[in-house]
Amino acid sequence: MANSGLQKLSFNMEEDEFIGEKTFQHYCAEFIKHSQQIGDSWEWRPSKDCSDGYMCKIHFQIKSGSVMSHPGASTHGQTCPPMEEAFELPSDDCEVIETAAASKVIKYEYHVLYSCSYQVPVLYFRASFLDGRPLTLKDIWEGVHECYKTRLLQGPWDTITQQVGEYCHLIVCILLYSFPLFIFSSSSLSPTLFPISLLYIFTYFTSKTVSLKTPSQTQSWFSHPIISSQSVL
Amino acid sequence: MTDDKDVLRDVWFGRIPTCFTLYQDEITEREAEPYYLLLPRVSYLTLVTDKVKKHFQKVMRQEDISEIWFEYEGTPLKWHYPIGLLFDLLASSSALPWNITVHFKSFPEKDLLHCPSKDAIEAHFMSCMKEADALKHKSQVINEMQKKDHKQLWMGLQNDRFDQFWAINRKLMEYPAEENGFRYIPFRIYQTTTERPFIQKLFRPVAADGQLHTLGDLLKEVCPSAVDPEDRVSLCCSGWSAVVRSWLTATSTSEFK
């Protein structure tokens, strides 16, 4: 999807904010197909009775003091200060542990589910170290980029909270339809906490199902590095 | 709603007599006596156990204390489940008092959410209330409330104040006179036998032909294995058995679990 898709989106909460579960599943199938084509590792996980399911992606990042370049790493072309660098976990885990000796490797697991209550896609994620210890909410809040921290700290529990997902024990629930508002209203996480392909998920779903009106007061947000032209696939 | 007030009060004031015992491997400076408490069914463990924590911490050294967590017969107790739900799921066939073991170390990261403060409980509670209203009223009622009304719901629960809570909650339990019920019934079905934490689906209180749906209709649709051909089912709904032919009217709390 072209990044110019972002600027074309407008959102009308009162009319078009819901999608049905079958529509969600259909768009997930298209999304997964595209993800496979670009090697972005999203996959569909069906429920046991196969009547429903969710999209899942696992993503590893090294938290270190300097920018590192890894061959084959997926940097997403971010223009934000690169506090963390995404990389693909090599097949030899020992190599990861050695290279991460002076760093922390954090595993992010993302689930995109359908919420029958809100009738929109919902994003859950869990961040943990390689030994399985989860990042605390406090760690996650503290990982938020400085320019968003003030807004976050005004209402952290209203912004990023913890819930148990329907399929597994995951922290954090964010309503996907509010994802860009979340990002744009400076109460979001550091962009490196979310792979930029998640922005793609939002634009993918919303352009298919709703028309988004850009609030006039957020025009300046489009100039922010998070959503600059290089940042969307 | 006025006719149901006795039911509402019975649900709110339901209590479970509980005995808290310190885990035997916790390090203490002297013997820790058990602590007895009547737990409110509609509340949350970490909200109502400050006295339990203080009681056991008196016999422990500060360095041996980290986040408190509770366990029943080896199962860590999820604080984000209402107390009544925890008891009904795990201990309803056991003799009273409910025996809960208290831990201050080795927090089971894979089984429990952390509860760093009362804010975490409030956030979880309000999240449930908002989701319930999304189902009932497309979130219109709860979104039109002021922040102080949301706060009053929480304070009512925290302070065990029925009237304070219901002064606001009654608005969340109303629906237009021309309709026979909410848009959808907010419910979750918890079973110990399934891998999924709960079953939650969209379900309307009124059928297409205008007939009111019953609890049995709901169960047959979303959890048919729980109902036998003669419509017999044993339910735990906040401590009282519900008849499957009960209409799904707004007689219980905003959260039906």
In brief, what are we looking at here?
Chain B: Residues 11-104 form the Autophagy protein ATG5 UblA domain. The complex is a heterodimer of chains A (233) and B (257). Helix content of chain A is 30%, strand content 19%.
Name a few traits of the molecule:
heterodimer; A: 233 residues; alpha+beta; 6-stranded antiparallel sheet; 6 strands; 30% helix; globular; disordered C terminus; B: 257 residues; Ubiquitin-like (UB roll); Serum Albumin, Chain A, Domain 1
SS summary, helix count of chain A: 9
What is the strand tally of chain B? 5
What is the averaged pLDDT score of chain A? Answer: 57
What integer value in Å does the Rg of chain A equal?
Answer: 17 Å
The largest pleated sheet of chain B is described as:
5 strands, mixed
Major protein interface: A-B, 22 and 25 residues
Strand content of chain A: 15-25%
Strand order in space, largest sheet of chain B: 2-1-5-3-4
What would you call the structural class of chain A? alpha+beta
Termini separation of chain A comes to 8 Å
- State the name of the first-level CATH class of the domain at 1-111 in chain B: Alpha Beta
Oligomeric grouping of the chains: heterodimer
* Helical proportion of chain A, percent range: 25-40%
Order of helices and strands of chain A: HHHEEEHEEHHHEHH
Main sheet of chain A, how many strands, which sense, barrel? 6 strands, antiparallel
N-to-C order of helices and strands of chain B:
HEEHHEEHEHHHHH
Number of helices of chain B: 9
Subcellular location (chain B): Cytoplasm; Preautophagosomal structure membrane
Family (chain B): Belongs to the ATG5 family.
Keywords (chain B): Acetylation, Apoptosis, Autophagy, Cytoplasm, Immunity, Isopeptide bond, Membrane, Ubl conjugation
Domain Autophagy protein ATG5 UblA (chain B): 11-104
